Amino acid sequence: MGIKVYGSPVSTCTARVLAVIEELGLEYELVPVDLSTGEHKRPPHIERNPFGQIPALEDGDLVLFESRVITRYLVRKYGKGSDLLKEDTPVEAATVDQWIEVETQHFNGPVSAVVFQHLFLPLFFGGTTDEKAAAAEAEKLGKVLDVYEVKLSKTKYLAGDFYSLADLHHLSYGHYLIAATPHGSLIHSRPHVKAWWDRITSRPASKKAAAGLVLSI
Amino acid sequence: MGVSNKTPEFLKMNPIGKVPVLETPEGPVFESNAIARYVARLKADNPLFGSSPIEYAQIEQWIDFSTFEIDAHIGRWIFPRLGFAPYNAQTEELAISSLKRGLEALSTHLASKTYLVGHTVTLADIITGCNLYNGFTRILTKSFTSEFPHVERYFWTIVNQPTFRKIIGEVKQAESIPAVPSSKPAARPKETKKEAKKEEPKPKVEETAAKPKEAKKEAKKEEQKPKVEETFEEEEAPKPKPKNPLDLLPPSKMILDEWKRLYSNTKSNFHEVAIKGFWDMYDPEGYSLWFCDYKYNDENTVSFVTLNKVSGFLQRMDLVRKYAFGKMLVIGSDPPYKVKGLWLFRGKEVPQFVIDECYDIELYEWTKVNTDDEVQRERVNAMIEDLEPFEGEALLDAKCFK
């Protein structure tokens, strides 16, 4: 009985799911999956996620993978009446979908590359940061955030004046960008982006999810 | 065991007559932790002692911790049950609670770490892993260790390391606790061909110089094999099973399942059929009715969060499902929403094990229903039926526990 999240509190994609769980006030159990021993590439986890990644969700008989799908499922099932997806109004729902897609297609690529270069590569793979590659990705990220800066000067949040999954999906990589790389200024130097970032990270649910993101060099 | 380790020759090597003992050209070494350190030092520049003075200190810290706070208590719990020490229930209780305290502390440390010190296996992990192996395979069942998920994850990580697997092979967690032996004296080791196995040569220095990790585990493995074989020869004392106090109540004419069926299957004329049926079968001697009122309704500002919190409460009440029926109402058309419930419990009180295990209980005010009071009976009916408006307000939702 109850929701099980298979993953790790230090993982960005797991934290994305935990942030929604906290927003919805749900009971859950976090079942650790140890990447350092390849647990995610072996049964039983590979049966939950054939791509061998975390997180995976178990809710009764349902098993789901892909964090951005798990978040939507949880909102649909347990968040009736919430603004996180706005499914009752097609136009607003489309706007939320659009900015969810922006995070996936435009923000995620460069931000995860920067965090990989400055944090995961040295921490887990004993590698050295490729400063040139990291700088190039940071520049790309800057251009994306320029678009955010314009949008956020018009609305308080990405999809409108309401907090939605589109904003929430940014929390975990944004956290590591600021806490574990020298490129936090990408957020802090853009006033509307910074104000939005402060707004979304000060939510109690966001703080709870970010509390697990403790990786550092 | 009990034979060759008590001979004068053996006692010269270890005056306390225990295994393991390492024979070296320079003399014997006993105490498994000391053997481990000696063997580890034989290979210069290995990572088992960490890469800095502070790491070394932490390794020693965790070796001491797992020796005193984990291994000692596991031993105190297991050995009486294997007949190697007198059994005493109070001593065992103390050993278990001390072990839990140690495991909790270990779990806290491991919440964000894969290994005890640094980012690789060190001597601390080898020793702690072996100490936990002893516990996991002999007496710590899954239901015990599931309270310490980080320790579980750590344990399986360590024993699945290739070097560990080579020595200890596949690890199976204990499925039950060994029974308390009957009052006959502890079994004397039998003079069978088991003796031959126990005479296996203890690890010699030449072998271990090349494989520092493995010697320690070979020694430990040897220690354990003979003991496990002996347990099976003993009489199995019947295991005491704790009975639920509610099962010991005098029988009641009310059968909870009959009420649950009546509630679920009555599709029409609910009041005439189900409500009337309820009061016909209700037994105030064998059961009791309770109103509960959430104490912190001002927190209930978001509808779906309130509903999810009530669902969480009902999930945690799963342990009383055989003995209870409940309705939880979320009331109001605007926040803050009020959460009120009705509960039917076997027995005349809210069961103690529910109060002990379910922390939500103390978040509610509980009032026993006076079933002679017509007003209170009507309120019970209204809550069973999901009557709207309830006390003048709309219902956001009504959840049933059955």
TrEMBL record, chain A:
Record's catalysed reaction(s): RX + glutathione = an S-substituted glutathione + a halide anion + H(+)
Domain GST N-terminal: start-end pairs: 1-82
PROSITE patterns, per database record: GST_CTER, GST_NTER
Enzyme class: transferase
Keyword set includes Transferase: yes
UniProt EC number: 2.5.1.18
Protein keywords: Transferase
Record-linked CDD domains: GST_C_Phi (cd03187), GST_N_Phi (cd03053)
Residue span(s) of domain GST C-terminal: 89-217
Signal peptide start-end: none
Top-rank taxon, per record: Eukaryota
Listed Pfam families: GST_C, GST_N
Keyword Zinc: no
Similarity-based family: Belongs to the GST superfamily. Phi family.
Xref: PANTHER family: GLUTATHIONE S-TRANSFERASE RHO
Protein name per Swiss-Prot or TrEMBL: glutathione transferase
Biological source species: Platanthera guangdongensis
From TrEMBL, chain B:
Keyword Protein biosynthesis on entry: yes
Matches recorded under InterPro entries: EF-1-gamma_plant, EF1B_G_C, EF1B_G_C_sf, Glutathione-S-Trfase_C-like, Glutathione-S-Trfase_C_sf, Glutathione_S-Trfase, Glutathione_S-Trfase_N, GST_C
Composition skew (Basic and acidic residues), residue ranges: 188-230
MF-aspect GO terms: translation elongation factor activity
Keywords: Elongation factor, Protein biosynthesis
Domain GST C-terminal: 52-180
PROSITE patterns: EF1G_C, GST_CTER, GST_NTER
Entry-linked Pfam families: EF1G, GST_C, GST_N
Region (Disordered): 178-249
Start and end residues of each EF-1-gamma C-terminal domain: 242-402
GST N-terminal domain residues: 1-47
Physiological role: Probably plays a role in anchoring the complex to other cellular components.
Subunit composition and interactions: EF-1 is composed of four subunits: alpha, beta, delta, and gamma.
Name of this protein: Elongation factor 1-gamma 1
UniProt organism field: Platanthera guangdongensis
